[in-house]
Amino acid sequence: MSITFDKVDYIYGKGTSFEKRALKDISFHIRDGEFVGIIGHTGSGKSTLIQHMNGLLKCTGGNVYYDCKDISNREYDRKTLRQNVGIVFQYPEHQLFEATVGKDVAFGPNNLNIPGLQADVRTYEALKSVGIDDSLLDVSPFDLSGGQKRRVAIAGVLAMKPKVLVLDEPAAGLDPVGRRDILDMIARIRREENITVILVSHSMEDVAEYVDRIMVMNDGALEMDGTVSEVFARRKELEEMGLSVPQISLLMGDLEDAGIIKDTGIYTMEEAVRVLSQKLLDRRGRNQ
Amino acid sequence: MVRFENVTFEYIRRDEEGNVDSITTALDELSLHIKKGEFIAVLGSNGSGKSTFARHINALLKPTEGKVVVAGYDTTDDDNILEIRQRAGMVFQNPDNQIVAETVEEDVAFGPENMGIPTDEMQKRVDEALKKVGLYKKKLESPNRLSGGQKQRVAIAGILAMKPDCIIFDEPTAMLDPGGRRMIVETAHELNKKDGITIILITHNMEETVGADRIIVMEKGRIALEGTPRQVFSKGEETLKKYGMEVPVITALAQKIGLDGCILTREEFVDAYVKALE
Ligand SMILES: Nc1ncnc2c1ncn2[C@@H]1O[C@H](COP(=O)(O)OP(=O)(O)O)[C@@H](O)[C@H]1O
Ligand SMILES: Nc1ncnc2c1ncn2[C@@H]1O[C@H](COP(=O)(O)OP(=O)(O)O)[C@@H](O)[C@H]1O
Ligand SMILES: [Mg+2]
Ligand SMILES: [Mg+2]
């Protein structure tokens, strides 16, 4: 499904003395199947933005469209919207509540009145795709490790078979190996299921490695929207917004300042290894 | 400053009748000595026992077996608890759970107030602490209006106002944006260098540990690896992976293109690369 925001505004506590304009005139279009990263300082509006994606919050100005259909339309089927757009909130494991892993994952499908057998199949499939073994189906989620709980929570959203998957810091608090596992898993699910994925993250490294396009939120406004290299080329502005660029970009910048390489716009490990090893090889060739 | 002697800690879960349901050994005969003024980074996979370790330092938990001594005070002796809590403060992961008062200033005063510090002395301490973390101008504001990084710095100021010898940070940057992260790690280093405060920083971010004097890697309640950042990160990717870790990005890149030595910082990288090109 493609998503279009057209001049979306959102004000918390409208008409009260606590009024807070959390989204300011946000417009963008996300094509079906894109992998988009959202970055922004705390309080920049990321969580508010993603809650507009499945109608949990209704914009106070502007419009949100899925496949060109306005979701604020009276005829728009909101229940299907919730099903199609799965949101994994921050620390989703805090919301596990059923007595067993199986019941927790099946909660969504059961709520949709999906017949028992089909719901079971979805539960199995979802758990399989997050790498949780069948043997854990009847275990209490509270007996699992932190990383496993997180996977079960994500499986609960996947069991709804969403066409758009939105994740708010899915790797927060995990150790580096767990972090990589979760992000690899999300990238794989995206490939296999052909779905649109939107990843909110505070890690510039993760965004650089996984997504194709970055949207930068700043004080409620969509400050930048472009390819990873376009966005990370604007280091000064990002730093002023409390953000950063990946370590690799910083290093390439240092090498450039030292007059060793030319402006490369490189931000991934792979590219850096390629360019820097090539230069070493060239030099050795000349020395021989 | 902090001494662990053969410390074992068990979480014991009981069913409704009070029978033991399960036992998790979170610390397993752990021994460790942290010197005054050291900056220690603690790494290790989720569930390896880092938080349990941290909570023993300010007597939130007490050893099942063995002994923890902080600034000369044994944590098992209840009479020592106030002394220990004043000397060893703890900053947690979630900035929102640590706010207790209506204004920044009151929040910072909460700890010393409970210690019975006289009012004028307290005001002095609060002001000093807020200046140190760069939030003096916000002292009359509501903490709820601050960013995550600022809230963490309010928590740090609250500890500073107690004039601690040691601050334990339990994944303080996990929920922060890059700017907030940078600020917290810089503050920790500054307190260590300028005020000689012993720092124990638990983190999953490898980049945050390269400035530490010593890294401790935990696994299953024990110390699996220990040494300077250079010693630990030169163990190589495969070893570190076993403990849920990675090498820092810059170190990994240097290793991949075959630069000699274990390179930790961007400056070291540029120097080594220039040499390699000569
Ligand atoms: N329920 C709420 N009521 C009032 N203000 C809110 C609420 N939730 C968020 N805000 C405010 O809206 C702004 C954007 O918040 P949020 O979307 O949570 O940002 P982010 O996810 O980028 O940290 C912030 O200023 C925040 O304080
Ligand atoms: N309150 C608790 N009750 C029972 N077990 C616990 C509790 N807290 C932690 N544990 C267990 O103790 C071990 C160590 O946990 P912890 O110290 O939190 O590790 P870390 O901080 O390294 O992630 C884990 O196996 C964890 O599941
Ligand atoms: Mg948020
Ligand atoms: Mg912990």
What is the domain total for the residues of chain B?
A: 1
Task: Give the integer mean of the pLDDT values of chain B.
Answer: 93
Structural classification of chain A: alpha/beta
Bound molecules: adenosine-5'-diphosphate, magnesium ion
Largest sheet of chain A: 6 strands, mixed
> What fraction, in percent, of the residue positions of chain A are helical?
40-55%
CATH architecture identity of chain B: 3-Layer(aba) Sandwich
The helix-strand sequence of chain B is EEEHEEHEHHHEHEEEHHHH
Radius of gyration of chain B: 20 Å
With strands numbered from the N-terminus, the spatial order across the biggest sheet of chain B is 6-7-8-3-9-10
CATH architecture of the domain at 1-76 and 163-177 and 190-240 in chain A, please? 3-Layer(aba) Sandwich
Shape of chain A: globular
CATH fold name of chain B, please?
Rossmann fold
Order of helices and strands of chain A: EEEHEEHEHHHEHEHEEHHHH
Q: Please name the CATH topology of the domain at 1-76 and 163-177 and 190-240 in chain A.
A: Rossmann fold
Q: What is the 3D form of chain B?
A: globular
Query: Approximately how much beta-strand content do the residues of chain B carry?
Result: 15-25%
Number of helices of chain B: 10
What does this structure look like?
The complex is a heterodimer of chains A (288) and B (278). Helices cover 41% and strands 22% of the residues of chain A. Chain A is an alpha/beta fold. Among the domains of chain A are: 1-76 and 163-177 and 190-240, Rossmann fold (3-Layer(aba) Sandwich), CATH 3.40.50; 246-288, no CATH class. Chain A is globular. The mean pLDDT of chain A is 93. Chain B has one domain: P-loop containing nucleotide triphosphate hydrolases (Rossmann fold), CATH 3.40.50. Chain B has 10 helices and 10 strands. Chain B has helices at residues 50-57, 81-87, 104-114, 119-132, 148-160, 178-195, 229-233, 237-242, 249-256, 266-277; strands at residues 2-14, 20-34, 39-43, 65-70, 73-74, 88-91, 166-170, 198-202, 214-219, 222-227. Chain B is an alpha/beta fold. In chain B, the strands form 2 sheets. A 6-stranded mixed sheet of chain B has the order 6-7-8-3-9-10, sandwiched between helices. Chain B is 37% helix and 24% strand. Chains A and B meet through helix 6, helix 10 and helix 11 of A and helix 6, helix 9 and helix 10 of B. The complex binds adenosine-5'-diphosphate (2 copies) and magnesium ion (MG) (2 copies). One adenosine-5'-diphosphate is lined by residues 11, 13, 24, 26, 44, 46-52 of chain B.
